[in-house]
Amino acid sequence: MPTRLDTVRDLLARSGKNTDLADALLRIDTVVQNWRRQMHKRELGHRATHALGLELDMAQIDVLFAIAYPSLSTEPNEDGETMVSTVAERLYIDPSRASRLVSEMVNSGYARRAVSQKDARRTILELTPAGEAVLDAVRGYKWLLLGEFFSSWSPEDVATFVPLLERYSNWMTTSEETEEKFADEINELARSIERAKAGIASGSKSG
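Above: the chain sequence. Below: its structure as tokens.
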């Protein structure tokens, strides 16, 4: 029975790529999957709230970060104002859920509603000093741990790692073009699922 490594090598060979990449791709995938599971469980966030004595859940902290986003963003076109709808967009949640979470943060004194300086008809959201203190503390916690971790790396390793990580993070943005390039191969992968399902169905009937 073919192993995962054999399967990746076969796909790479059929797509005209160097099969020596297979082992590296599997290692990267394993690291990313483990990272994704840790991020999904919000391990670092939960540790931070516990260490800082915060009686806030991660959804509430996410809302604070979403409200603060303009001041944290490096995007040149960020307009500097946040509404409930923009919180929903930034967190990929339903507007009604965003509204409820925002109200919780306002009622708890971590955020406040204000009138837009650009459009007086528009209500915007701002952090209060308490909300800013929470974000500063949570980020400070993260920077302390990251700083300790990377302090054991050489300056050369850090200088190499950061641009490579930034470069790797962009691979998803080019996936649509790549998907078009390998349309036939992807269609064949889809057909392999249908063939396997058909095999299961026929097996159950014969049983």
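Residues 1-41 form one domain.
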